[in-house]
């Protein structure tokens, strides 16, 4: 096996900087706060002594009380999918720093109209590079594995690296492909760091926005042909997007095209929802997904701060689609018994400090090639199902002559297998609700003894069983 020093160096660097999509010294933004109110509470000329000039959904603050100068208010969710959806605001401070943040939160929380004022936390992707990462295909051995973890029958694509994709065999994807290989009509939002738009195994499955340049609230999304950057609020996407590129390939690398890997969906529309670093960007992305009818989003990220973010909980509650989330890699173990340190948004799938468990969330832990649990987070209440996540080969950004595929591990890699199967289900049953898709995926899991006490399903994702069940689900 030929190794490359560059990737060995990259592995070392990654282990020291994996705390976020971007290199961070602090865990939250120092120039803004997130605020939740009942709908319409701040659509007035004055609010708690702040002289506000209302301009649609974004208001400029001219003067502040108590010596706390705010520069701008942005309403992150101008459209309302559910009747009782609360308003979520991002309030920018003229002064920055931890003390300014604390003071702003204290002042804002004295307002009776404010349900919550808190920090805009940064997010952490849930992955790590596998040992000895290489620029050429991993030397995975499937002999004796397929028979125990999946089925070798079904449709086999001609992609050159398919034999290295043990996970597709483990979840019975070839059998599922006898029913459907996906559809370009199904859109999956990759809420991540961004991805390589020119990768030969991804470019033909990129979402093409039929209605670009639309205005949502006070913002016009100029040039959003394949998605948007919700940090910079421009169509300029991050150049690298290593994490997002890998995740996207698991969901929908072009199948049967004779090159590289195949995704769970040979055909699908991958929307690039680049959030990179913080909760406010994720909320913007969910609003955009609602507006553009993107009914599945993959979220291989989270945070451990307690209490968890109420704005994020409210945004997911208002999302009209299936929110697939990774359970996290902190190795804290059982999330059910560690409330203060629980991984979020994983924990929003069960009753929590902010309200009842959300039925549009499906949380995913990770399995290894031999059906054993990976050393990651789990929980018989808070985590719904396991999916392959260790030693996963998928697409990787191409720079110059670099090889465009890489092995990575973590619940970041497990979640997109579930998102991909949800997309297969949607290709044959677009009428199913988010909860119905979740129920199908969980109830058809392949039972595995090692996961009986690790997730609701007590087993590993089974693509064939899920798609087959979807054909008649709810029609009895």
Instruction: Give the termini distance in whole angstroms.
Output: 53 Å
Oligomer: single chain
- What proportion strand? 15-25%
Largest sheet: 7 strands, antiparallel
What is the mean pLDDT? Answer: 83
* Computed Rg: 22 Å
Basic shape? globular
**Regions with little confidence, pLDDT below 50 for 5+ residues:** 1-25, 43-66, 129-151
Task: Describe the overall structure.
This protein is of the alpha/beta class. Helix content is 22%, strand content 23%. The protein has helices at 5-17, 98-108, 146-149, 166-170, 173-176, 242-252, 279-291, 310-317, 411-428, 434-443, 463-470; strands spanning 28-37, 46-47, 50-55, 58-63, 70-75, 87-93, 114-121, 124-125, 128-129, 182-192, 215-216, 219-220, 227-229, 267-274, 296-299, 301-302, 322-326, 361-367, 385-388, 392-395, 405-409, 446-447, 459-460. Strand 2 and strand 3 form a beta hairpin. The longest helix has 18 residues, at 411-428. The radius of gyration is 22 Å and the shape is globular. The termini are far apart. Residues 1-25, 43-66 and 129-151 have low confidence and may be disordered.
Short summary:
The chain is α/β, with parallel strands linked by helices. The chain contains eleven helices and 23 strands.
């Amino acid at each position: 096996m030929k190794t490359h020093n560059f990737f060995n160096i990259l592995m070392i660097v990654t282990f020291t900087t994996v705390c976020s999509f971007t290199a961070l010294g602090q865990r939250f933004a120092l120039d803004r706060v997130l605020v939740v109110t009942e709908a319409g509470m701040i659509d007035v000329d004055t609010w708690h002594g702040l002289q506000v000039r209302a301009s649609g959904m974004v208001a400029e603050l001219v003067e502040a009380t108590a010596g706390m100068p705010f520069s701008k208010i942005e309403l992150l969710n101008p459209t309302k999918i559910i009747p009782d959806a609360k308003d979520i605001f991002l309030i920018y401070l003229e002064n920055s720093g931890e003390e300014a943040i604390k003071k702003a939160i204290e002042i804002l929380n004295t307002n009776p109209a404010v349900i919550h004022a808190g920090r805009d936390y940064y997010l952490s992707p849930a992955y790590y590079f596998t040992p000895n990462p290489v620029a050429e295909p991993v030397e995975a051995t499937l002999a004796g594995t397929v028979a125990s973890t999946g089925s070798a029958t079904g449709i086999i694509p001609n992609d050159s690296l398919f034999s290295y994709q043990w996970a597709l065999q483990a979840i019975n994807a070839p059998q599922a492909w006898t029913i459907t290989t996906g559809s370009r009509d199904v859109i999956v939002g990759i809420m991540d760091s961004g991805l390589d738009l020119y990768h030969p195994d991804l470019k033909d499955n990129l979402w093409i926005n039929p209605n670009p340049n639309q205005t949502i609230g006070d913002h016009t999304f100029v040039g959003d042909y394949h998605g948007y950057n919700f940090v910079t609020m421009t169509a300029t996407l991050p150049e690298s997007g290593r994490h997002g590129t890998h995740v996207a390939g698991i969901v929908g690398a072009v199948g049967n095209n004779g090159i590289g890997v195949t995704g769970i969906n040979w055909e699908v529309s991958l929307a690039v929802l680049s959030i990179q670093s913080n909760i406010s960007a994720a909320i913007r992305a969910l609003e955009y997904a609602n507006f553009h009818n993107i009914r599945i989003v993959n979220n291989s990220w989270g945070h451990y701060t307690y209490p968890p973010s109420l704005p994020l909980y409210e945004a997911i509650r208002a999302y009209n689609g299936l929110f697939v989330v990774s359970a996290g890699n902190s190795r804290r173990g059982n999330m059910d018994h560690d409330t203060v340190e629980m991984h979020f948004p994983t924990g929003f799938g069960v009753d929590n400090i902010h309200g009842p468990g959300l039925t549009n969330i499906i949380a995913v832990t990770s399995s290894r090639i031999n059906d054993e649990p990976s050393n990651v987070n789990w929980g018989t209440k808070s985590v719904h199902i396991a999916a392959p996540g260790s030693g996963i080969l998928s697409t990787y950004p191409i720079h110059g002559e670099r090889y465009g595929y890489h092995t990575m591990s973590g619940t970041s890699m497990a979640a997109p297998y579930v998102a991909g199967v949800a997309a297969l289900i949607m290709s044959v049953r677009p009428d199913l609700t988010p909860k119905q898709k979740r129920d199908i995926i969980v109830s058809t899991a392949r039972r595995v003894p090692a996961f009986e006490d690790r997730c609701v399903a007590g087993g590993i994702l089974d693509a064939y069983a899920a798609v087959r069940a979807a054909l008649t689900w709810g029609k009895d």
